[in-house]
Amino acid sequence: MAKEELKIGEISKPRFEFRSFGQDFEEAAYLMGRLSVPVPRKVWERESDEIYIVSKTNEINNTKIRDGKMDIKTFVTSIDGLEQWNPLMKGEFPISAKVLKEEVFPAFMVSTPKFEKENYSLDEFMEMVNQNQELQAVRVHKERYGYMVNNTICELADVLINGAHVVSINSESTEIEDIKATLRDLDLEDIENINYLQAIKRIIGWSDKTLAN
Amino acid sequence: MTHFIPRYEFRLFGLEEIDSVITTLRAKGIAGKERHISEIYLMTAGNTINNIKIRNKLLDIKTLVKHDDTLEQWNPQEVGQFPLSKEKIVSEIFPALGVEAPLLDKDVYTLKEFMQELILVDPDIIVALTEKDRYAYSFNDCICEYANVKINGALLRTVAFESENPDLVKAAIKAIGIKDNHKNTNYPKAIKRVLGLEINYDINNFF
Predict the structure, then answer these.
(1) Which of A110, A134, A179, B37 is the most buried if burial means most Cβ atoms within 10 Å?
(2) Are A161 and B126 inside 8 Å of each other by CB?
(3) Is the CB of residue B54 less than 8 Å away from at least one CB of chain A?
(4) In this predicted complex, what is the ipTM?
């Protein structure tokens, strides 16, 4: 069966992902730049401000808010250390109490509050997060630089987590062997796969593990 | 117990936004030592006046004693070197943290025991591991520094001016060109922002 050709910036079947976070991926970034094929201009540099909602009791659902929209991805499986995530829910503010009750708070794996209104604005939702000791909203600012190596979508990013800086490096594809080849080529084989949720929890002190470097 | 004279301090944290302040300090100040230091900060949401940290198995507490316009005056106090007695932990450390001390079943705690049995198990206490590359300067008779600080692996830069004489600190800030919109930010405040322990949920502050 022919491999799916990944087109950067477009939707594909679920991908496997390697990502890591630290302070120094200079060598890998240099190699990524040298080995990349040309990519569409729209992904050369992308900047975004997002809010991640992290939960003390949940490690498998990744919830973020960007441009007034919420999306939740759920962890599916890990093969050879590469993670596969699927979209679980997408919603737009104002968001209905029904969606909050049936999808959002169950994804957080925390107790569901009482809902007295039919719809909630972003401000009102954030107040709910503030009231819950198991949840925390984390400011994330991303400056992302897109590449393509071995038919895997790659990215180097300067990320601010509550204002403090980390570097993230990533390779993702529907094909595990292509990611593995990319990690070999970028000299990242011995680097720990750390997803956004884990990185954030390590930085805010909710995990005793460290970043990759 | 070693006695230090309380100093007035002005400190900034940031990234590119404080580059010009650091550049000016490097140009106008007299360079001193460079040091790399690893420390453990103990943070709680309720504590706003005590800066509690452990370095080289020595625990010290700096207490905010005074605000003078934009400056803060801190009184440092060494609690002691690990292993620490149960009495010190109960009477000095947990009150400074602002959380209730658990029942302690040992008379003396090593650093490992203190962290594993008393700190990491307490849901009200968050630990911040910091790595600092500190560059000392003197300027306008003030003790100054800039530093690259990793807080649980995430990087911020900081620059600080301190002296027992608040007028010298104010003059130094003015001479360096620090603007009015730069607010004095101490280490616990900066760390809490990264940890999310003090967070303004006004959504406009997120963008």
Answers:
(1) A179
(2) no
(3) no
(4) 0.92
